[in-house]
From TrEMBL:
InterPro entries, sorted: F-box-assoc_dom_typ3 (IPR013187), F-box-assoc_interact_dom (IPR017451), SCF_F-box_component (IPR050796)
Domain F-box associated beta-propeller type per the UniProt entry, residue ranges: 5-156
Protein's recorded name: F-box associated beta-propeller type 3 domain-containing protein
């Protein structure tokens, strides 16, 4: 069993919420149990709309990532060829999940070695910092929330050796 907890604020409902995801192994596979605590209501409730079942892992590298009234997780989907990443968003106003299209998930091209992506918030907008093990990094921002075509590169850098 694995737990993933996030805390965030929804400006539309003026409510702070805690979202707890619990991965439960249930042969032959697994399920995600979702619970939400509303500070306004002062109580927990189970969410019927489930976490996307095709996702097998949540990144442990991300901190609290709340933007535009949504909590975010960088998740992985194992397919036969490679481990693919996606961003899952939880709408704190209506307690539902959706996936954010990430058209150019591997932003840095022509690299050798491992890549690490990190979610964050920059100037109130969802962002991704993508780094490769030789020290090259790029920061991309979703300029218009929920619009996959609105990812814009803000900066790039190379860490000194």
């Amino acid at each position: 069993m694995a737990n993933h907890v996030r805390f965030g604020y929804d400006p539309k409902t003026d409510d702070y919420k805690v979202v707890k995801l619990t991965r439960i192994l249930q042969p032959p596979g697994m399920i995600w149990q979702v619970e939400v605590y509303s500070m306004k209501k002062g109580s927990w409730e189970f969410i019927i709309q489930t976490f996307p079942l095709h996702l097998t892992q949540i990144s442990d590298l991300d901190d609290e990532t709340c933007a535009d009234g949504h909590l975010h997780w960088l998740c992985y989907c194992d397919d036969l060829e490679q481990k693919q990443e996606t961003i899952v968003a939880f709408d704190l106003g209506v307690d539902t999940f959706n996936e954010i299209l990430f058209q150019v998930l591997y932003f840095i091209t022509n690299h050798h070695g491992s890549r690490f992506n990190y979610l964050g918030v920059l100037a109130g907008k969802l962002c991704v910092m993508s780094c490769v093990d030789h020290g090259e990094c790029e920061v991309w921002v979703m300029d218009e929330y929920g619009v996959a075509e609105s990812w814009v590169k803000q900066t790039s850098c190379v860490f000194p050796v």
